[in-house]
Design goal:
The chain is of the alpha+beta class. It has one domain: Glucose Oxidase, domain 1 (3-Layer(bba) Sandwich), CATH 3.50.30. The chain is built from twelve helices and 20 strands. Strands 1-20-18-12-14-16-17-6-19 form a nine-stranded mixed beta sheet. Strand 10 and strand 11 form a beta hairpin. Helix 7 packs across helix 10.
Length: about 350
């Protein structure tokens, strides 16, 4: 009897969990007609298409005043900060890898890397990274269903994201007039706090974006511009000091960084879509405020509402220290993702010229 009761309880729990899983769908992509995107039904590049417009490139070059160059990418290291189980593992095979060769006794070194190449450290989210679970199945940018997108190899293994691979964005790259929003300075604090509910100061809304730009003396966002948010949260692993920290201190900071993050509220991302921007980014792992945002119960809402819905791409884990130290909030931005065919995203080292 006890065994039957136990099995009955387990069965009921499984049924409830199954019902919850079935209920966790979002059919707004269909009911709100998210597709085709503004770039056309066959498009795979989304907002990077702005780079094809010479006027956008001219506007970017026009903001350069001092002709100084800085890079904004973070280190790729085995003990950097990663989301969840992601990792970066690099070894030098052979010591040296090859040689000596020839009378000049040449030797060489290679590296062997295993990693989620598009989703660690400084990373661009591509059209195959984020999807929405609907009653018809998982859907991604431009209305493409997961199973239609998957490119399969031997044994049916998925070896790429097909028409939603990041290489389509990489064919264009990004060249844009960019603005940096210094949110802690606007709030009067050193670093934005992790938000837990709507209204918390760690959430940067559309109204906040406009107010920060006014405070920084910046002109309005134009189609094809790029916008970046400094929250201070990313300073937990700035390039400037990360390699000098002890193992214990790095572990402490990783835990703090991954406990949540300040960032864009949903209205800010909707405003960026409205302004038809080329790229949004910031100094955190998602750039969306979390766990608290302007809407209750949504997971990183900008990822679905901007990326899946419109193809406005997202660049994560940037280090703005060089720009902040120079007091620069407007600059020309250049980023060329690697052409990793079928990949969900791409690493890189973005360049700012001011």
């Amino acid at each position: 009897m006890k065994q039957k009761m136990l099995l009955g309880a387990v069965g009921a729990a499984l049924l409830l969990s199954g019902a919850a899983a079935m209920a966790q769908v979002n059919d707004r992509p269909w009911t709100e007609h998210w597709f085709p995107s503004r770039w056309g039904a066959d498009d795979s590049a989304g907002s990077s298409n702005h780079t094809k417009n010479p006027a956008n490139v001219k506007r970017a070059i026009g903001v350069i005043k001092q002709f100084k160059v800085v890079t904004l990418g973070k280190y790729y290291m085995h003990d950097s900060v990663f989301f969840g189980p992601r990792s970066w593992n690099m070894v030098i095979p052979g010591t040296p890898t090859g040689g000596p060769f020839g009378k000049n006794a040449l030797v060489y070194h290679d590296e062997y890397v295993t990693t989620e190449i598009g989703q660690v450290s400084t990373q661009l989210d591509g059209p195959g990274h984020i999807g929405v679970r609907t009653s018809k199945g998982d859907v991604m940018y431009n209305g493409r269903m997961r199973e239609e997108v998957y490119e399969r190899g031997p044994g049916g293994r998925v070896i790429g994201m097909g028409k939603n691979g990041v290489e389509f964005i990489a064919e264009n790259g990004f060249v844009c007039r960019a603005v940096l929003l210094n949110a802690p300075a606007y709030r009067g604090m050193a670093r934005l706090p992790i938000p837990h509910k709507p209204g918390d100061p760690g959430i940067v809304t559309a109204d906040d974006v406009k107010a920060i730009m006014r405070k920084e003396g910046l002109s309005e966002l134009m189609p094809g511009d790029c916008v970046f948010l400094y929250t201070g949260h990313g300073d937990l692993w700035r390039n400037k000091e990360w390699k000098s920290l002890s193992t214990e201190e790095r572990a402490k900071r990783r835990a703090e960084f991954n406990s949540g993050e300040p960032g864009y509220g949903l209205s800010a991302c909707q405003y960026f879509v409205e302004r038809n921007l080329a790229l949004q980014g910031g100094d955190t792992s998602a750039n969306d405020a979390q766990p608290g945002n302007e809407v209750e119960g949504w997971a990183v809402p900008c990822h679905t509402e901007a990326q899946v819905r419109t193809g406005l791409w997202n660049l994560e884990n940037l280090d703005f220290t060089p720009l902040l130290e120079a007091g620069v909030y407007e600059f020309a931005f250049f980023y060329g993702p690697i052409k990793a065919v079928g990949a969900t995203g791409a690493p890189g080292n973005p360049i700012a010229i001011y």
